[in-house]
Amino acid sequence: MPVTHDLQQGAMSDEESLAERIRSGDRAAENELIRLFSGRTLAMAVVRLRDREAARELVDDVMMAVVTALRRGTVNGTDRLGAFVYGTTINLINNRLRTLSRQPRLEAFDEEPAVPDDGESCDRDSELQLLQRCLARLPAADREVLTLSLVDGLKPGEIAARLAISAEAARQQKSRALKKIRDLLHSVSRTPGH
Amino acid sequence: MENTVRVDCDVVAMDELAERYLLGGLAPAEQDAYERHFFQCTRCAEELEQLLALQRALQRSARSADAVMARPARARAPARWTWLALAATVAAVALLLTVGRRPEQIAQAPVPRQNPPSVSPVLPPADASLPQPMPAARPTAPAVRDSVVTDRAHALARLARVDPPRYSPLILRGVADDATVAFENGMKDYVAGDYRAAGRQLRQAAGLDPERVDIAFFLAASELLSGNTAAAVPAFQAVIALGDSPFLEEACFYLAKSYLAMGDVSRARTEFARVRDMGGDLAGAAGEIDAQLSVLAQD
After folding, report:
1. Does the beta-carbon distance from B52 to A187 stay under 8 Å?
2. Residue from A49, A86, A51 nearest B44 by CA
3. How far is B240 from chain A (nearest CA, A)?
4. Domain that includes residue A137, residue range
5. Per-residue pLDDT tens for B212-234?
6. Do A191 and B24 touch (CB under 8 A)?
7. Do B58 and A135 touch (CB under 8 A)?
8. Which of B67, B89, B152, B228 is the most buried (most CB within 10 A)?
């Protein structure tokens, strides 16, 4: 049996209730919905658009579309809000990609590829700062493995060759480093909703 | 085309889907299935969001490191090291002039006041941007002693200076509890530079939730920055006692600074050595300060 946590199983009534609250004009419920889905929508948009700024704009558009539909009560199957948000996201991403493909490219072909930008909103800055604190707590070797893996995109075998260790050791080191980061984050996230 | 790839939490973990997804390494059908899954699964979504943020932090660190490496060697040292270099010079001069001083003389030595960009909890430093003029003629013995004491105190005061730990508000999910509200109020004062007011609010927040490490850390920092080093020491010790956290390294570092501000060089060195051994971002700074304290202690 497939393993999926919460939304499909335990939290169905929560989702329906959230949708109902939004339909009845509860602004706090709208914020709750945005907090619940904006992170994963951003991740999907970043991956598919490869442009963080465009991804942020798209998250706003998705959230606006979803909230508007829920306010109007035009969403079917509100027990599966995640699926509705996903559908809205994929539609808006496809629209954006179609628009981009129709626009003439004025830039030089050898321009730098679109990568995550330096502009940060305040909330992301704070997350970044916290993560940088966590990273600073890791041994340099662990940071190196994470960078090679998550920034340079190297596979464990390639990391192993670079660091003259076995692939298994590289995999374990990365796994330990990620666990350590999660543990560190957990130590400061004991607040409601986390 | 029908999506035939099946993804659940176990598959996500086993096949490292989150990481491969962020790196653009999933086949289209696998990518679609994974996206459908994390829109239904809060736990997998949170793991993905965390990994995305971590990737961003690493990218930024990597870019910062590249930028530093690209700079000419002379420009590489951060601005705050300028005063450390000066302090080293002052310390060396102090060593040359060392004549029979006692620790209590050092602690009581007066130091000219100046408004520094960073904060000196006990002894505000002299103008860090200018070297201190050397006396034109050899002074008499008591004058030499006074000068030595003052110079060493200058050096210690400079080594005790702190830059306020950076803070920007963390956006958290859910309704803020009382401790969080008090913490956020305190941090408004902290950001505004009113460390005494921040300390009052943060003490209240810490009372409401003594195990919140971020509250404990910024309370300790506020105590130190407002000159209340006697309170800063146990406050940083409390942060350290909470165990491994994103604030552990900084807590040890600022505890060392607190000891230094109190003139307890021995304990300060123990803490700086601890920070150096942690091997984190502050290891280099801690090692440098410890080395200079070692020179100062050799008399």
Report:
1. no
2. A86
3. 13
4. 122-187
5. 888 999 999 999 998 888 999 99
6. no
7. yes
8. B152
Contact in structure between A44 and A54 (CB atoms under 8 Å)? no
pLDDT at B172 over 60: no
Is A5 close to B41, i.e. CB distance below 8 A?
yes
Residue with tokens 């809205």: A88
Encode pLDDT of A7-20 as tens digits. 544 445 688 899 99
- Smallest CA–CA distance, residue B68 to chain A, in Å, is 16
CB contact under 8 A, A43 and B248: no
pLDDT beyond 90 at B205 = yes
Mark whether B192 and B264 lie in a shared domain: yes
Domain boundary, last residue among B29, B55, B73 = B73
B169 residue type, one letter: P
Tell me which chain B residues have a C-beta less than 8 angstroms from the C-beta of A188: 170, 212-214, 245-247
Q: Is residue B118 predicted with pLDDT exceeding 90?
A: no
From B90's Cα to the closest Cα of chain A, the distance in A is: 31
Tokens encoding B172: 């958290």
Q: Which one-letter amino acid corresponds to residue B179?
A: A
